Amino acid sequence: MAVTDEAIEKIKGMIVSGALRPGDRLPKESELAADLGLSRNSLREAVRALSLIRILDVRQGDGTYVTSLDPQLLLEALSFVVDFHRDDTVLEFLAVRRILEPAATAMAAVRISEQQLDALTAQLDKLGDNPSVEDLVACDLEFHRGIVHSSGNSVLCSLLDGLSGPTTRARIWRGLTQEDAVARTLREHRAILAALRDRDAEAARSWATVHIASVEQWLRSTL
């Protein structure tokens, strides 16, 4: 394992230094192994490991390439790991969301376009006043994804997208068991949207915090 770790570090060093750039094809296995002072087996294991976390792209019959290194691509590994969360860590995921999402919503207040605001309004109008819990949660995910995307920060967008999964079940559970959850969620969505239309970053931040904290508070009271 230590030999594989060394091989990973050497390939990483080539990418960080700029010797290998996004989209570049790696030299032939025999050449690269000789250049880096590695065995072909350890190099092969390192390439396999780096392809799993989307650093490298192994194309059968074509060669191995450095990926785009786009944050959304790299953070796919986070989504995979997050899927293994335990139910008792959902509150921790919500706490992280409560830190990051209001900041992204505040950023969106000064960047979001009128067309994007109209699309969010149409999304809420289409949902209506008495949606099913499943439709509400699906809309909730898309509503917040659209806002975070408008923040203009691709890393923040990818992080929050990866963190949304563990809280989905909690949101459905809340919608099924808390009497006013659906109406309350709709009111909070409208308040967030109004703040975004007013270009009021602090109001948008505050309403996003209230929105996430209400789920967190309910879940804490039921555990």
From TrEMBL:
Entry-linked InterPro entries: GntR_C, TF_FadR/GntR_C, Tscrpt_reg_HTH_GntR, WH-like_DNA-bd_sf, WH_DNA-bd_sf
A Pfam family of this chain: GntR
Keyword Repeat on entry: no
Molecular function (Gene Ontology), one example: DNA binding
CDD domains: WHTH_GntR (cd07377)
Domain HTH gntR-type span(s) in chain numbering: 1-69
Keywords: DNA-binding, Transcription, Transcription regulation
Protein name: GntR family transcriptional regulator
Organism: Streptomyces variegatus
